[in-house]
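Next up, sample data.

:::
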Amino acid sequence: MAAKTIAELDLQGRRVFIRVDFNVPLTPAGGVSDATRIRESLPTITHAIERGARVVLASHLGRPKGRAKPEFSLLPVAAYLAEALDRDVVLADEPAGDGAKKVVNDLRDGGVAILENLRFSPGEEANDENFSRALATYADVYVNDAFGTAHRAHASTVGMVKYVSSKGMGFLMDREAKMLSKLLGDVQRPFVAIIGGIKVSDKIGLLESLLSRADAVCLGGAMANTFLCAKGVPMGRSMVETTKLPIARAFLAKAEASGVRVVLPRDLVVGTDAKALTGTVISATSVPDDQAALDIGPDTASEIASVLSRAGTVFWNGPMGVFETPAFAAGTMAVAKAMAQVMGGTTVVGGGDSVAAVHRAGVAGNITHISTGGGASLEFIEGKKLPGLAALES
C-alpha cells in the first residue's frame, strides 16, 4: 500500500505529530547557522497549521548519546521556528514524560509545540518499545517529513508509527521519494554517477548497484585513491583502504564486463597534509612518497565536465577532495559548476558535502533536486527500502 501524503489526511483539531529533521549546525553563540533543513519542512508545518491541526514537532540534534545535554537543546531551533512561522512555538523540556504531555495537552487548534531533542532519551536510537508507545500518545496523526533519518529504524521513525492509525508523508519526504525514484527507473541517458568522499566501504553497495543502471561512474576523493592503488598505482601518504583493495579490483572488473565506463583521476593535487596552504598538481601515477592526494587535478575535472556535457541524468554524492581547505577545493567546485551546465537533463545532488559544494559554488538554483539526506539518499539509490518510508506503507 502506497504511503499517503499529509494533503490526504484529516488534520482539523487533531494532534499531528510531525517527525522533522532539524539536526542543524549551531553558532558558537547558540543560534542556528544554517536553517536549510528547517526551511525545507516549513510547507508541511504551515499546511498543518492552516488546517487547524495541533502540531507536535519532533527532531534530534547532534549526538547526545541518550543523555540531556544543554549544548544539544532544540531551544535555538524553536526560536528560529517561532520567527519563521510568526507565532509562538512552545518547547517541551523533555522528549517524553509529564512535562511533554502537558505541553501537548495544552495545545489549541493551530498551535505549535516541539519536543526536546529525541536523542536525549536512549530509547530513540534503540527503537525502545516503551519510548515508542510514549511518543505515540502525543499523536492522533503521524507525519514523517524527515527524509534525512528515513534510513534509521528509530522510535520516532518506525517504532511509534504502528500505534498511530492515521499516517503519511510530509511534502519534503514526498518530493524526495518521487525525485530519487526517477533515478531507479527509465532515465534519460547517458546516466552518469559521480561518487566521491572518503571510504569505499561506505559506498561499495551503491557503486555495485549502479553497474546495472549507469553508463559512466566518475570517482574522486580519498575513495578514488583506493581504486588507483588497486590498479597498482603508488599513492604515497594518501589515504587508502588497503583492506578494500580486492573489492575495488572486483568492482573495476565488473564495470568493464558490464560496459560501464569508470573515470578515475588522471591527475591529482597533492600536499603534505589536509591543512596545507598550497598543493601541487601531478600525474595520478606520480604521487611522491612524502605527499598525499587531496584533490582531483584540472585535467580530471575537465574530463568529468566533458562526460557531464553529454549526460541526460546525473547523480552526485561526495566531494572530490578536502574541499574545506582552499588549496584542495578546486576539483569539487569544478564538478559543481559542471553539474550546473547539464542542459535539458536531470541533476540530483545527494546530501552532505556535495550539497555544501553546490551552494558554495553558487549553482544550487541550477540543480534539479538537492537531497536533504546523505545516507538516506545513498541507500535509496542503492535500491534499499528505507525503514521510515516502509513504516508509512503498512
Q: What stands out?
A: The longest strand covers residues 15-19. The CA atoms of residues 175 and 369 lie 9 Å apart.
